[in-house]
Specification:
The complex is a heterodimer of chains A (43) and B (239). With 43 residues, chain A is mostly helical. Helices cover 93% and strands 0% of the residues of chain A. The chains are: A mainly alpha (43), B mainly alpha (239). Chain A: This is Heme exporter protein D.
């Protein structure tokens, strides 16, 4: 049994999971803060 | 300190510079720890190379459980002091905690196949961790439904506190039941893992924890900005 295949799969899943989480959190933060700033400027 | 930070303006003043610092420091530490765990430590005599999954599985388990401790603590804070920021904190921690609980289950399953010869076993630790993941999903759905209905957040907060009953079950499942999952190998003062294999784990635990904190701050900032937009739109509509 090639143990490295399991190690690689576990690290790839972790990278995808944390990367996806961080990207989602950052994009939603940017979108919300840009909307709040533009509304404040318009007011 | 907590009461001072409960003011959203004061909180944002601190959170804006802190978000990138926590996040990028976390990324750097986690990457270093993962690199060291993959290349600088010996393989285990029994588990061979698959022991390297330890360096990501343990931080994921720590944050899956730590995340719910945060949800429960913030929910309790909201129920006692009614600080809206505590409710926002609980809601912001939940998705990150759910992702790490899922990563704990997935990496554990991948680790189980070469080590135990099975992807899954309905033993105490695995089942209680799966339940914790479902509790996260239920909390996220409940908090969203409560927010959509214009609720005051008390129901999800009560759920957040009640869900903490699972934490000691996850923690002591390997003591209370004879499980396939190994018993506690890392304590506060001692460890059954040799130092030559253990040290990268501190980097990945520290790194993923900082990254987690950075993501939670991003979510809190997003929710505060969204609330600001909604409040302003309501005021404009009322004129």
């Amino acid at each position: 049994m090639n143990h490295w295949a399991f190690v690689g799969a576990a690290y790839a899943v972790t990278l995808a999971g944390t990367g996806g989480l961080a990207l989602w959190a950052w994009r939603s933060m940017r979108r919300a803060e840009v909307a709040a700033d533009s509304l404040r400027r318009d007011a | 300190m907590i009461h001072a930070l409960a003011n959203p303006t004061r909180f944002l003043k601190l959170a804006r510079p802190l978000t990138p610092v926590l996040f990028w420091a976390g990324v750097a530490l986690a990457l270093f720890g993962a690199w060291a765990g993959l290349t600088q430590t010996p393989a285990d005599y029994l588990q061979k190379e698959s022991v390297r999954i330890l360096y990501i599985h343990v931080p994921a388990a720590w944050l899956g459980m730590g995340g719910w401790t945060g949800v429960a603590g913030a929910s309790l804070g909201y129920l006692i002091w009614r600080h809206p920021l505590a409710h926002i904190a609980a809601r912001s921690i939940a998705p990150a905690g759910a992702v790490f609980a899922a990563l704990c289950l997935i990496t554990g399953s991948i680790w189980g196949r070469p080590t135990w010869g099975t992807w899954w076993e309905w033993d105490g630790r695995l089942t209680s961790m799966l339940l914790l993941f479902f509790v996260y999903i239920a909390y996220i759905a409940l908090a969203r439904a409560d927010s959509d209905r214009g609720g005051d957040g008390r129901v999800p907060a009560l759920f957040g506190v009640a869900g903490s009953v699972l934490l000691p079950i996850v923690r002591y499942s390997v003591v209370w039941w004879n499980t396939l999952h190994q018993g506690q190998s890392i304590g506060l003062t001692s460890s059954s893992i040799d130092g030559s294999m253990l040290w990268p784990l501190f980097f990945t635990i520290g790194g993923f924890t900082l990254l987690f904190a950075g993501v939670v701050l991003m979510r809190m900032r997003a929710m505060l900005a969204t609330q600001k937009v909604e409040a302003r739109l309501r005021r404009m509509a009322a004129r």
